[in-house]
Amino acid sequence: MANIRVLVPRAIAKLKRVIGAQTFIKGGYVRQECAEAERSGVPLYDYLERGIPEDLRRFRDDVVRQLLEYVPRGGGGSWKSALARD
Amino acid sequence: MEIGTGAGLIAARVLKARSDVEYLSFEPERYLQRHLEKYLGTDRFKSMQSSGVDLRGVGSGSVDAVMIYGVFTVVETVAIFKYLQEASRVLKKGGVLMFDIFDTDRSDAPLFALIQKQVVRMQSRPFLSGVFMAGYLRELGFVKREPVPNDHTPYGLMHVFTRT
Protein backbone atom coordinates (compact mmCIF):
# COMPACT_ATOMS: atom_id res chain seq x y z
CA MET A 1 0.00 0.00 0.00
CA ALA A 2 2.82 2.31 0.95
CA ASN A 3 4.48 1.51 -2.34
CA ILE A 4 1.42 2.54 -4.33
CA ARG A 5 1.19 5.82 -2.41
CA VAL A 6 4.75 6.60 -3.44
CA LEU A 7 4.85 5.14 -6.92
CA VAL A 8 1.60 6.55 -8.32
CA PRO A 9 2.40 10.25 -7.66
CA ARG A 10 5.90 9.66 -9.04
CA ALA A 11 4.50 8.07 -12.19
CA ILE A 12 2.01 10.93 -12.62
CA ALA A 13 4.75 13.53 -12.15
CA LYS A 14 6.94 11.79 -14.75
CA LEU A 15 4.01 11.53 -17.18
CA LYS A 16 3.30 15.24 -16.75
CA ARG A 17 6.92 16.10 -17.53
CA VAL A 18 6.93 13.93 -20.66
CA ILE A 19 3.56 15.23 -21.89
CA GLY A 20 4.62 18.81 -21.18
CA ALA A 21 7.82 18.41 -23.14
CA GLN A 22 6.07 16.69 -26.03
CA THR A 23 3.35 19.37 -26.17
CA PHE A 24 5.97 22.07 -26.40
CA ILE A 25 7.98 20.22 -29.01
CA LYS A 26 5.05 19.10 -31.11
CA GLY A 27 3.48 22.49 -31.48
CA GLY A 28 1.50 23.58 -28.43
CA TYR A 29 3.67 26.66 -28.19
CA VAL A 30 3.80 27.17 -31.95
CA ARG A 31 0.00 26.86 -32.20
CA GLN A 32 -0.36 29.68 -29.68
CA GLU A 33 2.15 31.84 -31.57
CA CYS A 34 0.38 31.07 -34.85
CA ALA A 35 -2.94 32.27 -33.39
CA GLU A 36 -1.21 35.46 -32.19
CA ALA A 37 0.28 36.04 -35.64
CA GLU A 38 -3.14 35.52 -37.26
CA ARG A 39 -4.67 38.07 -34.89
CA SER A 40 -1.90 40.53 -35.79
CA GLY A 41 -2.45 39.87 -39.49
CA VAL A 42 1.15 38.82 -40.15
CA PRO A 43 2.62 35.50 -41.23
CA LEU A 44 4.05 33.35 -38.46
CA TYR A 45 7.54 33.44 -39.97
CA ASP A 46 7.59 37.23 -39.71
CA TYR A 47 6.03 37.13 -36.26
CA LEU A 48 8.67 34.74 -34.95
CA GLU A 49 11.54 36.50 -36.73
CA ARG A 50 11.64 39.16 -34.01
CA GLY A 51 12.33 36.59 -31.32
CA ILE A 52 15.07 34.67 -33.12
CA PRO A 53 18.47 35.15 -31.47
CA GLU A 54 21.06 36.77 -33.73
CA ASP A 55 23.27 33.65 -33.78
CA LEU A 56 20.43 31.42 -34.90
CA ARG A 57 19.28 33.95 -37.51
CA ARG A 58 22.78 34.12 -38.97
CA PHE A 59 22.96 30.34 -39.08
CA ARG A 60 19.55 30.10 -40.77
CA ASP A 61 20.62 32.65 -43.39
CA ASP A 62 23.83 30.68 -44.04
CA VAL A 63 21.77 27.51 -44.47
CA VAL A 64 19.42 29.17 -46.97
CA ARG A 65 22.38 30.62 -48.90
CA GLN A 66 24.08 27.23 -49.05
CA LEU A 67 20.85 25.49 -50.07
CA LEU A 68 20.26 27.90 -52.94
CA GLU A 69 23.79 27.40 -54.23
CA TYR A 70 22.88 23.77 -54.89
CA VAL A 71 19.57 24.49 -56.62
CA PRO A 72 20.06 25.03 -60.35
CA ARG A 73 19.04 28.49 -61.55
CA GLY A 74 16.02 28.37 -63.80
CA GLY A 75 16.48 24.63 -64.23
CA GLY A 76 14.76 23.48 -61.06
CA GLY A 77 11.66 21.31 -61.26
CA SER A 78 8.19 22.37 -60.23
CA TRP A 79 6.22 20.83 -57.37
CA LYS A 80 3.55 19.85 -59.89
CA SER A 81 5.98 17.73 -61.88
CA ALA A 82 7.44 16.18 -58.70
CA LEU A 83 3.97 15.09 -57.60
CA ALA A 84 2.97 13.91 -61.05
CA ARG A 85 5.80 11.36 -61.37
CA ASP A 86 5.66 7.65 -60.49
CA MET B 1 11.39 20.18 -50.68
CA GLU B 2 11.31 20.69 -46.96
CA ILE B 3 10.26 18.07 -44.46
CA GLY B 4 8.88 19.63 -41.29
CA THR B 5 8.42 23.15 -42.63
CA GLY B 6 6.99 24.38 -39.33
CA ALA B 7 6.52 28.14 -39.23
CA GLY B 8 8.11 28.53 -42.67
CA LEU B 9 11.21 30.36 -41.49
CA ILE B 10 13.29 28.74 -44.23
CA ALA B 11 10.56 28.41 -46.88
CA ALA B 12 9.73 32.12 -46.78
CA ARG B 13 13.43 33.06 -47.14
CA VAL B 14 14.00 30.69 -50.03
CA LEU B 15 10.92 31.79 -51.97
CA LYS B 16 11.79 35.43 -51.40
CA ALA B 17 15.43 34.96 -52.45
CA ARG B 18 14.76 33.10 -55.70
CA SER B 19 11.75 33.61 -57.94
CA ASP B 20 12.60 30.50 -60.01
CA VAL B 21 12.30 28.10 -57.06
CA GLU B 22 9.20 26.04 -56.29
CA TYR B 23 8.72 24.65 -52.82
CA LEU B 24 7.14 21.38 -51.78
CA SER B 25 6.45 21.28 -48.05
CA PHE B 26 5.74 18.24 -45.88
CA GLU B 27 4.23 19.29 -42.57
CA PRO B 28 2.07 17.11 -40.33
CA GLU B 29 0.31 20.03 -38.62
CA ARG B 30 -2.75 21.07 -40.64
CA TYR B 31 -3.07 24.54 -39.06
CA LEU B 32 0.52 25.37 -40.09
CA GLN B 33 -0.14 24.17 -43.63
CA ARG B 34 -3.20 26.38 -43.95
CA HIS B 35 -1.38 29.34 -42.44
CA LEU B 36 1.60 29.03 -44.78
CA GLU B 37 -0.57 28.58 -47.86
CA LYS B 38 -2.41 31.75 -46.90
CA TYR B 39 0.79 33.81 -46.83
CA LEU B 40 3.06 32.01 -49.31
CA GLY B 41 0.31 31.33 -51.85
CA THR B 42 -0.21 28.09 -53.72
CA ASP B 43 1.46 28.96 -56.99
CA ARG B 44 5.09 28.23 -56.06
CA PHE B 45 4.35 26.61 -52.71
CA LYS B 46 2.58 23.31 -52.13
CA SER B 47 2.04 21.85 -48.69
CA MET B 48 1.36 18.17 -48.03
CA GLN B 49 0.11 16.90 -44.69
CA SER B 50 2.60 14.21 -43.80
CA SER B 51 5.86 13.56 -42.03
CA GLY B 52 8.98 12.55 -43.91
CA VAL B 53 8.54 8.86 -43.15
CA ASP B 54 6.35 8.45 -46.20
CA LEU B 55 6.75 10.79 -49.15
CA ARG B 56 4.14 8.91 -51.15
CA GLY B 57 3.05 10.90 -54.14
CA VAL B 58 6.47 12.38 -54.77
CA GLY B 59 8.17 10.84 -57.77
CA SER B 60 11.52 9.08 -57.52
CA GLY B 61 14.41 11.27 -58.67
CA SER B 62 12.19 14.34 -58.97
CA VAL B 63 13.48 16.82 -56.38
CA ASP B 64 16.53 19.12 -56.47
CA ALA B 65 16.96 19.52 -52.72
CA VAL B 66 15.63 18.11 -49.47
CA MET B 67 15.86 20.26 -46.34
CA ILE B 68 15.23 18.77 -42.89
CA TYR B 69 15.81 21.43 -40.25
CA GLY B 70 15.09 20.99 -36.54
CA VAL B 71 13.24 17.73 -37.13
CA PHE B 72 15.68 14.97 -36.20
CA THR B 73 15.86 16.44 -32.73
CA VAL B 74 12.26 15.43 -32.04
CA VAL B 75 11.46 12.31 -34.09
CA GLU B 76 12.14 8.73 -33.05
CA THR B 77 15.55 7.40 -34.05
CA VAL B 78 14.09 4.68 -36.28
CA ALA B 79 12.06 7.32 -38.15
CA ILE B 80 15.27 9.21 -39.00
CA PHE B 81 16.42 6.30 -41.15
CA LYS B 82 13.06 6.18 -42.93
CA TYR B 83 13.31 9.93 -43.60
CA LEU B 84 16.76 9.46 -45.10
CA GLN B 85 15.65 6.52 -47.26
CA GLU B 86 12.75 8.53 -48.64
CA ALA B 87 14.97 11.56 -49.20
CA SER B 88 17.36 9.34 -51.12
CA ARG B 89 14.50 8.05 -53.28
CA VAL B 90 13.00 11.41 -54.24
CA LEU B 91 16.25 13.29 -54.87
CA LYS B 92 17.60 13.71 -58.38
CA LYS B 93 21.17 12.65 -59.06
CA GLY B 94 23.30 15.53 -57.88
CA GLY B 95 20.49 16.73 -55.62
CA VAL B 96 21.35 17.99 -52.16
CA LEU B 97 20.23 16.75 -48.74
CA MET B 98 20.63 19.08 -45.76
CA PHE B 99 19.77 18.20 -42.18
CA ASP B 100 20.78 18.97 -38.63
CA ILE B 101 20.95 16.52 -35.77
CA PHE B 102 22.19 16.32 -32.23
CA ASP B 103 25.54 14.80 -32.98
CA THR B 104 27.19 12.67 -30.32
CA ASP B 105 30.56 13.39 -31.92
CA ARG B 106 30.22 17.08 -31.22
CA SER B 107 29.67 18.58 -27.82
CA ASP B 108 31.79 21.71 -27.93
CA ALA B 109 29.07 24.35 -28.46
CA PRO B 110 28.31 26.25 -25.24
CA LEU B 111 24.71 25.13 -24.76
CA PHE B 112 25.02 21.91 -26.66
CA ALA B 113 26.16 19.56 -23.91
CA LEU B 114 23.59 20.85 -21.44
CA ILE B 115 20.64 20.59 -23.81
CA GLN B 116 21.78 17.23 -25.11
CA LYS B 117 21.84 15.88 -21.57
CA GLN B 118 18.38 17.25 -20.79
CA VAL B 119 16.76 15.96 -23.95
CA VAL B 120 18.28 12.51 -23.59
CA ARG B 121 16.99 12.34 -20.03
CA MET B 122 13.54 13.64 -21.07
CA GLN B 123 12.99 11.49 -24.10
CA SER B 124 15.18 8.47 -23.41
CA ARG B 125 16.33 8.56 -27.00
CA PRO B 126 19.77 7.64 -28.23
CA PHE B 127 21.53 10.31 -30.25
CA LEU B 128 23.24 9.42 -33.44
CA SER B 129 26.87 9.81 -34.20
CA GLY B 130 27.65 12.03 -37.19
CA VAL B 131 30.26 9.51 -38.32
CA PHE B 132 27.70 6.71 -38.21
CA MET B 133 25.18 8.84 -40.13
CA ALA B 134 27.75 9.62 -42.81
CA GLY B 135 28.44 5.90 -43.23
CA TYR B 136 24.73 5.13 -43.56
CA LEU B 137 24.22 7.89 -46.11
CA ARG B 138 27.20 6.64 -48.13
CA GLU B 139 25.36 3.31 -48.34
CA LEU B 140 22.32 5.17 -49.68
CA GLY B 141 24.44 6.76 -52.40
CA PHE B 142 25.28 10.11 -50.86
CA VAL B 143 28.56 12.00 -50.85
CA LYS B 144 29.40 14.21 -47.90
CA ARG B 145 29.96 17.91 -48.60
CA GLU B 146 31.24 20.72 -46.42
CA PRO B 147 28.68 21.29 -43.63
CA VAL B 148 27.29 24.72 -42.78
CA PRO B 149 29.16 25.65 -39.59
CA ASN B 150 27.22 26.44 -36.47
CA ASP B 151 29.19 27.35 -33.38
CA HIS B 152 26.57 29.10 -31.32
CA THR B 153 23.36 27.11 -31.33
CA PRO B 154 22.59 23.75 -29.78
CA TYR B 155 21.44 22.02 -32.94
CA GLY B 156 24.89 21.28 -34.26
CA LEU B 157 26.06 21.60 -37.83
CA MET B 158 23.85 21.60 -40.90
CA HIS B 159 25.07 18.49 -42.66
CA VAL B 160 25.20 18.60 -46.44
CA PHE B 161 25.20 15.54 -48.72
CA THR B 162 24.71 15.20 -52.45
CA ARG B 163 23.01 12.27 -54.18
CA THR B 164 25.13 10.36 -56.68
Descriptive account of the structure:
The complex is a heterodimer of chains A (86) and B (164). Chain A has helices at 2-25, 28-40, 44-49, 54-70, 79-84. Chain A is mainly α and 86 residues long. Chain A starts with a helix and ends with a helix. By secondary structure, chain B is of the alpha/beta class. Chain B has one domain (2-163): Rossmann fold (3-Layer(aba) Sandwich). Chain B is built from five helices and seven strands. The chains are: A mainly alpha (86), B alpha/beta (164). At the A-B interface, α1, α2, α3, α4 and α5 of A face α1, α2, β4, β5 and β7 of B.
Structural class of chain A: mainly alpha
Q: Based on the coordinates given, report the CATH architecture of chain B.
A: 3-Layer(aba) Sandwich
What's the domain count of chain B? 1
Mean pLDDT rating of chain B:
83
Specify the overall morphology of chain A.
Answer: elongated
Work out the number of β strands of chain B. 7
Tell me the strand percentage band of chain A: under 5%
Average of pLDDT of chain A: 77
